[in-house]
Design a protein that fits this description.
Order of helices and strands: HHHHHEEEHEEEEEEEEEH
Structural class: alpha+beta
GO biological process, one term: proteolysis
Number of domains: 3
Strand content: 25-35%
CATH topology of the largest domain: Thrombin, subunit H
Largest sheet: 6 strands, antiparallel, barrel
GO molecular function, one term: serine-type endopeptidase activity
Radius of gyration: 36 Å
Helix content: 10-25%
Transmembrane segments: 64-82
Protein name: Trypsin-like serine protease
Keywords: Hydrolase, Membrane, Protease, Serine protease, Transmembrane, Transmembrane helix
CATH superfamily of the largest domain: Trypsin-like serine proteases
Shape: elongated
Length: 359
């Protein structure tokens, strides 16, 4: 008999004329015992003497065997029931077993609880719903060059700018690429990467809730840091939703982070990951082949693809701790963002003489 399985058990001794007993996990031990006793009494009444009553001082072999099996079944049933109800374990066996399945029985026995992702996923949805209205798509319209291919990714890294090369030969502005950005001020100021708006003749910004893209002008740009500030006017005269900056120095490696952007034109895509490293230096190869060194970047495994450039990297509070900037083309899950502390210092200088409400 296997007492570790919740299934019917059967003892088949047909050659000896014994009754077959079955029990289930829901059967009470007392009911089992009564059935066993009734069966023993019935066997005793049909012994070798052929009489209708039990004989004192004599017990047939089948009766002895039946009594033995009945006792074994009763003990097994009691053990099984106590195991299922945790009668002797104080309710801790289930905790240890669950933890052991996760490879952490020692922690569970000590009362240590393993972390759950449920609260994190709920935070992700909240952050997205709050931050997404402030994230925009930026379209760069420029004069077509004679280059047939653009080097999106350098040897060690590159710009995820989703640049496109048009087949037109006219000198009219054509769509050269798309990127992301976000409002950091309710008056219409947008932060993005400098490489997203480079060589643009015209910039069109798609804002959530507006059917027609808005025309943006460049307020200032910092090529060394790959940052640019744009300005759009709200046609209805109201303010825009804006994101606030967090302290990237307070972010820890392993913290959850969230990226929102427009990878490959798939607008308002959210990806999640962790902060993989801080203070990361990288060298990016520009379109003309020249190297560009960057310092103090945040590294993350949140998916960053062409079109994510300029989008926010958020913590679970919905604060901007970085601007997504580059990826390693030879790897998976290695992206980089400009830290918020670097951004804030730079933007203050770029916005000198301009009224900013939420920086």
């Amino acid at each position: 008999m296997n007492d570790n399985k919740d299934m019917n058990h059967e003892f088949d001794h047909a050659n000896e004329g014994l009754t077959i007993y079955r029990y289930e996990s829901s059967r009470k031990a007392a009911a089992l015992q009564k059935r066993y006793e009734d069966a023993i009494a019935a066997k005793g009444g049909t012994g070798a003497s052929g009489g209708g009553a039990n004989r004192r001082g004599r017990t047939s072999a089948p009766s002895i065997l039946a009594a033995f099996l009945a006792g074994a079944l009763m003990i097994g049933g009691l053990a099984y029931t106590s195991d299922r109800l945790n009668l002797f374990s104080g309710g801790t066996a289930g905790v240890v077993q669950t933890a052991a399945a996760n490879g952490d029985s020692h922690s569970a026995a000590a009362g240590v609880k393993t972390a759950s992702l449920q609260s994190s996923t709920e935070d992700f949805a909240t952050v997205f719903n709050q931050a997404n209205p402030a994230v925009v798509e930026i379209a760069n319209y420029g004069i077509e060059s004679n280059r047939s291919n653009l080097n999106l990714y350098g040897r060690n890294g590159g710009w995820p700018g989703s640049r496109q090369q048009s087949a037109q030969s006219s000198q009219d502005p054509v769509l050269m690429g798309t990127g992301s950005g976000f409002f950091f001020d309710k008056n219409g100021y947008i932060l993005t990467n400098q490489h997203v708006i480079a060589d643009a003749e015209e910039l069109k910004v798609t804002v959530p809730g507006y059917d027609t893209p808005l025309t943006a002008k460049v307020v200032n740009a910092n090529e060394d840091l790959d940052l640019a500030v744009l300005k759009v006017e709200n046609p209805d005269g109201t303010s825009f939703p804006a994101l606030s900056f967090g302290d990237s120095d307070q972010a820890n490696i392993g913290d959850w982070v969230i990226a929102i952007g427009n990878p490959y034109g798939l607008d308002h895509t959210m990806t999640t990951g962790v902060l993989s490293a801080k203070e990361r230096p990288i060298t990016v190869t520009e379109d003309d082949g020249s190297p560009h060194q960057y310092e103090h970047l945040l590294q993350t495994d949140a998916s960053i693809n062409p079109g994510n450039s300029g989008g926010p990297l958020l913590n679970t509070k919905g604060e901007v701790i970085g601007v997504n900037t580059a990826v390693n083309a030879e790897a998976q899950g290695i992206g980089f963002a400009i830290s918020s502390n670097t951004i804030q210092d730079a933007v203050k200088k770029m916005m000198a003489g301009t009224t900013v409400s939420s920086l």
